[in-house]
Amino acid sequence: MNSVVSASAAAALPQADEVVRLKDVKRRFGTTPALDGVSLTVRKGEILGIIGRSGAGKSTLIRCLNGLEQTDSGEIHIEGRSITGLSEKDLQPLRRRIGMIFQHFNLLSAKTVEENVALPLKIEGLGKTERLKRAAELLDLVGLSDKAKAYPSSLSGGQKQRVGIARALAARPALLLSDEATSALDPETTRSILALLKDINRKLGLTILLITHEMEVVRSVADRVAVIDAGRIVEEGQVWSVFADPQAPITQSLLSGIRPQLPDTIAARLSRVAGTEQILSIDMAGPAAQGALFADLSQALPQSFRLVHGGIDHIQDQPVARFFIAVPTRDAALPEQVQNFLKARGARVEVLGYDANHA
Amino acid sequence: MTPIMLELLFRSLWETILMTGASGLISLVAGLPLGLALVATSRGGIAEKPWLNSLLGAIVNGFRSVPFIILLVALIPLTRLIVGTALGTWAAIVPLAIAATPYYARIAEVSLREVDRGLIDAVRAMGGNRWTIIREVLVPEALPGIISGFTVTLVTLVGASAMAGAIGAGGLGDLAIRYGYQRFETTVMIAVVIVLIILVCGIQWLGDRLVARLDHK
After folding, report:
1. CATH topology (fold) of B3-214
2. What's the average model confidence in pLDDT over A5-10?
3. Each residue's pLDDT tens digit, A227-279
4. Short-list B183, B157, B195, CA closest to B10
5. What is the pTM for the complete model shown?
6. Which of A51, A183, A201, B217 is most buried per CB count within 10 Å?
7. How far apart are CA A359 and CA A116, in angstroms?
8. Which residues of A touch B (CB under 8 A)?
9. Given pLDDT bands bounded at 50, 70 and 90, which one contains residue A355?
10. Residue A351 and residue A270 share a domain
11. Are A177 and A66 in contact (CB under 8 A)?
């Protein structure tokens, strides 16, 4: 799936399994557009990751979905209902269908953990016994039953976010919004929080929309990813396919820390002038990446390449491979043969340049 | 110190406690909503109304800029209307409360303004209305500041009540002026000062204890 397909899907009539549908949503602050015509759909039960640099408009986007932020134009449908132009009062029942977790947790310091979790139910008008019973269930779900009577200040960051998640789930929402929920946490805690979100997604079939600036977050939990830059969605698709073949420069740049890159020492020596070795990058993903590529290559063309760097990652159970190889140029026809072999096997091959200094 | 002087000292202490306590309570009941209104109507507040905010701000500043001794005299007609007399301890409570209310409103405003906006967002995102935000977020989260601000107001009222002697309200300050200062009775002066120190320390101690118990930050 690519962005063209989903843009036309967004323009079509709302479908039953769409939890969120945005059409050409615009919002500007002063003269700078924060959202510059965003169209997007989130389907029931999926985890959509929206990634972008800070200032790309992702926070504004997520806050528009529950009306914390106003839009200038465009349409937002939540579970088939249009929310644009609704008054604060009309937004209130709708917000109870949407849970939200925050980067800085936003727990009320004057309330105990269970009171925090029970607050959405208090707003809904549920009685105290029922509220606390449900809060206990949720604290059990997030593994914090023993902290029910504690105050948030005595918890660690990861525990606070677990309370935040329990609170967001209290009113049995149809959608969970995650606003940089792991950005204030250390890598280990981040992993445990993401695992919890994935677990909840599977167990409860909960639809999750998360925004982040970290590709690692998208990689580990999202089903689909949308890349936002300067208030526009520049790329969208299955996580593994976007990771395998990023189109937009911003996506490539966001992925640079997480995909194998040509080692600096070689990159520094690289030249356009023909040298002793040609450096190639090889990208393969999905079924194409499952064969014994290099074994076959060395059998077909013996001594035709040297492996420089790379690896195979598994995203959504799909292999995503990226390698760098050096092909000797002593036989002038060899680089061409290697490239043709790889292309025939479904790889994307790019000539990066020549390494003159390698002995 | 004679038994009569001792009795006078206790009577004055009671008058001070009465004046401070009653006017303090009124300033809490009236000043907290006023402080909430100042925060809620301000730019970016939960009930943004700039004109109302300016109006309230001007009224608060107006009352706060009048020296208390002038307010005491200027409010005599109002005092007479409410209490029935312009003289005595009860009569002093009216101008004291009117002076303390805008003072306390500003202190409460500062505490309420410091409540993290993210918490308000969180409760809005849950579907809470303005009333929920006030009841579940603003007041409970600002409570330590609201209480310690009230302590400050009470101590200020102890000082201000000394001036209420001008309308025959009695109290410790009045005792110190009439006996200690005007009659050169140093013992009375010292006794009054000691009692005032104990009173102020007691109020502060109680306030601090309460804040320590309520603060979970």
Report:
1. MetI-like fold (1.10.3720)
2. 43
3. 999 999 999 999 999 999 999 999 999 998 889 999 998 888 888 888 889 99
4. B195
5. 0.88
6. A51
7. 66
8. 66, 68, 88-89, 91-96, 98, 100, 102, 104, 106-111, 119-120, 122-124, 151-153, 167, 171, 177
9. confident
10. yes
11. yes
Confidence of residue A31 (pLDDT cuts 50, 70, 90): confident
Of B121, B127, B143, the CB nearest to A93: B127
Find the domain containing A312 and state its range: 264-355
Residue A165 lies inside a defined structural domain of this protein:
no
Q: How many domains does chain A have?
A: 2
Buried b (16+ CB within 10 A) or exposed e, B173-189: bbbbbbbbeeeebeebb
* E strand or H helix at A82: strand A81-82
Residue B217: its chain A contacts at CB < 8 A? 109, 153
Q: What CA–CA distance (Å, rounded) separates A134 from A123?
A: 14
The DSSP code for A174 is S
Structure tokens that stand for A119 in this block = 């607050």
Of A107, A85, A105, A83, the closest CA to residue A95 belongs to A83
Residue entry with tokens 């009659």: B183
- Beta strands A207-212 and A175-179 are parallel
Q: Max CA-CA distance within chain A?
A: 82
Are residues A189 and A236 both part of a single domain?
A: yes
Average pLDDT of chain B to the nearest whole number: 94
Same domain, A248 and A291: no
Could you tell me if residue A114 is inside a domain? no
Residue A111 counted as domain residue: no
Both ends of chain A: CA-CA distance in Å?
Answer: 44
Question: Domain coordinates of chain B in residue numbers?
Answer: 3-214
Q: Which DSSP category does B138 fall into?
A: I
